[in-house]
Amino acid sequence: MKKIITSVCLLLAAIALSAQVKEDFKPATSNQSNRQYPMVNSQRIVRAQVRATDAKSVKLDIGGVKYDLTNDGNGVWTGDSAPQDEGFHYYQIEIDGASVPDPGSLYYYGSSRWGSGIEVPAADDDFYTLKNVPQGEVHERYYYSSVTGSMHHCYIYTPAEYSANTDKKYPVLYLYHGGGEDEHSWAQQGRTGIIMDNLIAAGKAVPFIVVMDNSSDTYGPNRPRPEMPAFGGPRPQGAPGQGRPQGGPGAMMGGFDFASAYQEILEKDLIPMVEANFRVIGDAQHRAMAGLSMGGMLTHSIALNNPTLFAWLGIMSGGVFSVEEVAQAKGFRETNKLVFISFGSRELENRVMGYSDPKPINEELGKSGMNTVFYVSPDTAHEWQSWRRALYQFAQRLFK
Amino acid sequence: MKKIITSVCLLLAAIALSAQVKEDFKPATSNQSNRQYPMVNSQRIVRAQVRATDAKSVKLDIGGVKYDLTNDGNGVWTGDSAPQDEGFHYYQIEIDGASVPDPGSLYYYGSSRWGSGIEVPAADDDFYTLKNVPQGEVHERYYYSSVTGSMHHCYIYTPAEYSANTDKKYPVLYLYHGGGEDEHSWAQQGRTGIIMDNLIAAGKAVPFIVVMDNSSDTYGPNRPRPEMPAFGGPRPQGAPGQGRPQGGPGAMMGGFDFASAYQEILEKDLIPMVEANFRVIGDAQHRAMAGLSMGGMLTHSIALNNPTLFAWLGIMSGGVFSVEEVAQAKGFRETNKLVFISFGSRELENRVMGYSDPKPINEELGKSGMNTVFYVSPDTAHEWQSWRRALYQFAQRLFK
Do the beta carbons of residue A278 and residue A301 sit within 8 Å? Predict the structure, then answer.
């Protein structure tokens, strides 16, 4: 009986503790300048506040859950979320049924919309924090695609030493976003420039160039959009991990071969533009491709479609290679220097039945003689903290 | 009597015509991809549409006026503005008293907030339309300021030929935003890169570099923010034009000398960073400064504080030089190659009593032997179309 009472007391104490919100909230670093809200506390609870004098209902919509905000009587609505994972999250505010960006946050492209995002502080956020180290640049550039007959938009990172060492040529990583994202994603919420500058300054990565393009921009006057549902719709964060994507090379997504559609632009327009305008070593041994989720599947497909184009491959949260696929892709094994596979730990825990477990597939690849690395981001899901950490790990292993 | 009836009929017909909205609305080019609303028609009327199923009131807030939207009964609210000026405008949506960004638009920094913006088509929009011409780049760069002890953020445009002509050095324009704006403003809504690429491709401008910095970022660990109201609050678009700003060199804005505060960063940190990292001709004859509104006053003050720093000056919508000021600034007359002054025509029409008329001041400057240009943007106010056109005019006259 005493044991039961103790257990009940412990349980009640745990419930009380879990309900206790620590009042150590600070404005999120992702806020607009001089905006106090949204805030985050040390429990990683997000507190939103919005002024809506005549509203009946205001909600914070984050991580797939809508949290009610409370009116203070003067039309200022405030409320808290449950604790969030470390790192970056998309969110919105719902005001009387309208889903709108929070006027307090900066805006990011993801889930097929420009909208609010929030940084939840992480124990390991040092690697993506802006510091006074030698600074590279992120170049914004438009280029003409002969395949689509239209102008495309991309970002290109060059390391700090690039402008001074005008005789030196550099290796290049082509780095891809997920579904419902675009070329802005790695450049902004991915923090690619900051991660690279910090890695290079610490001597952990060799200096290289990173190209961030929009792999969903595949139509134009020269290639009209087919009349079918387009791939690239909203993909909720925190969705169950996809151990192994459906489909091999040239996978049909929504009935359309999105990888081949983009591969033509990559080979005919993007790579030639990069190699004509930047000091690049233009061979497979100095060329890497990586991507997250849909970008991982893109990397998977393009690497198998053209096995001698990239020697270094990064597959983040979707797109794992099998031994059979590699065996069938002529020249892949001889060309490849690294297959890097990564997932958020929650993606592996929550793996949907029917998807294969990526870890044994990767181990099999390793046993077959490939240089493989399998990285798991602790306590994160299908979200940006997993992919920032994956880039941090992957970049240290490239071109060495 | 017949005459009176005719007059009344003509009047009624005119009212009916003016109320007639042409149904030739098209999605704004400033929309997020695949968003139909907001739209603009050939009368330059903006039509907004927002889904807010439980709202009591939804308004379109543009140009200082709030327009009621109407519920279709299913929670989809739609409504029109009065005709707007050609060009770019900041706007917001008001939902039951909450002022929020429109979920349909792209977002821009101005009026001291990231929020909605809309492009109203202009008869002359060709000069700022993206085309398949040789493309320059806009470089995003962080730099350390020894003055503030913090990292600053800027954009730097380089022309298309810059990466190929690795032995050539280029002149530089330092180009400044207005109050409540920052380094993003010229790079995004100002369309600096596109305007420059088009001008250079047409042979109308010599290739030069453009630096877009944030002149309001003047505090940090090494220079704490003084306890006084900071300058740079919201500045409504379409406000009465300011013919001649109050105050000369080192004007005190809100009790603080904002020009001197920034000048120290410009001279000690920004110009040295630019000249160390870009191939720049580092003398006054190849260095220009220009700015709009608060940026015009900044240009005015810094040019008089250090008259031998910039040979080419652009003053847009505020900051006109007088003959007396120039006479007192040692070396100004000998160094200067051009004083370019511009306004929107509505700024001159609506000049607030008490401000001096800029035109005679400029003419006096010209008669005193200075090379001056006075440009008036037709049918525009204190807004971005005036400043895009001013850049287009100014850039053609630089470094020649």
Answer: no
